[in-house]
Specification:
The protein is 55% helix and 14% strand. The protein is an alpha/beta fold. It has two domains: 45 residues; 188 residues, Aminopeptidase, CATH 3.40.630. The protein has a five-stranded mixed sheet with strand order 4-1-5-7-6, sandwiched between helices. Strands 2-3 form a two-stranded antiparallel ribbon. The chain is elongated, with a radius of gyration of 26 Å. Bound molecules: zinc ion (ZN).
Length: 244
């Protein structure tokens, strides 16, 4: 009788199903492997591209305030600490892209000599000296803002007056910071000691308002500072691309 064919057919169908599953699994594995290889090559290409663009450049990162001068303060949150965290994140990104980075400070310190009569002025003077070194390509000073109007929010970027390159660098960095910080500002220039006293190209980025609730809570999050650092990094890269 044909009683033996049923199980045979069943096991044949099962075997085919298993084979298909196996093929599908192997196929997926191959697709995943190819995707991984493509992504690796792509990320390498990006690194190499950035590398050639930013390598050879010396960039000064100035984490505003520190030491005796905590900068702006809101709800026991000090500006100097946020500035330093962001500066260190930016340092990693720029060094990763092949740039030489000079950090104005890497700890909670100021640069004024202990016997300085005007500590704030002496601190700023020392920062300017570091920025004005001949090997420096550009500098970025990082600060947080404060306003009497708690509604004011978002990043602002200041440029050196009558310096078209500084204006363009500020515009490129602000363009990237706008979406990250929900900013509606345009690049600005103002009576800022560091921007007036430097002979090298630079900008000052105010990365958010400590006086605004949303900005303040965002600025306390590490991921937000990662995004800000990456936006500044991209802005610098965009600016260098324009110059090429
Ligand atoms: Zn400041």
């Amino acid at each position: 009788m044909g009683s033996g064919i049923g199980p045979l057919l069943f096991s044949y169908n099962e075997a085919m199903k298993r084979l298909k599953r196996k093929c599908w699994a192997t196929g997926s594995l191959i697709v995943l492997l190819i995707a991984a290889l493509v992504m690796r090559a792509f990320s390498r290409a990006i690194t190499v591209m950035s590398d050639t663009r930013l390598s050879g450049m010396t960039i000064v990162i100035d984490a505003g305030h520190g030491g005796k001068d905590p900068g702006a303060r809101s709800q026991a949150i000090d500006e100097d600490e946020i500035n330093l965290k962001t500066a260190k994140k930016l340092q990693r990104l720029l060094e990763g892209a092949g740039a030489e980075v000079i950090m104005i400070r890497e700890e909670d310190v100021d640069l004024a000599p202990a016997d300085a009569k005007n500590a704030k002025r002496a601190d700023l003077k020392r920062r300017v000296e570091i920025m004005n070194q001949p090997q420096v390509t550009l500098f970025v000073s990082i600060h947080c803002n404060i306003s009497l109007d708690s509604r004011v929010h978002g990043a602002e970027v200041y440029y050196q007056q009558d310096n078209e390159n500084s204006h363009q660098l500020a515009a490129a960095v602000l363009e990237r910071l706008r979406s990250v910080t929900n900013s509606k500002f345009q690049p600005k220039t103002g009576n800022i000691y560091i921007l007036k006293q430097t002979t090298t190209l630079g900008i000052l980025a105010e990365i958010g308002f400590l006086s605004n609730g949303q900005d303040l809570s965002a600025l306390q999050k590490d991921e937000h500072l990662d995004e800000i650092a990456y936006a500044i990094f991209q802005g610098i890269d965009d600016f260098v691309k324009i110059l090429e």
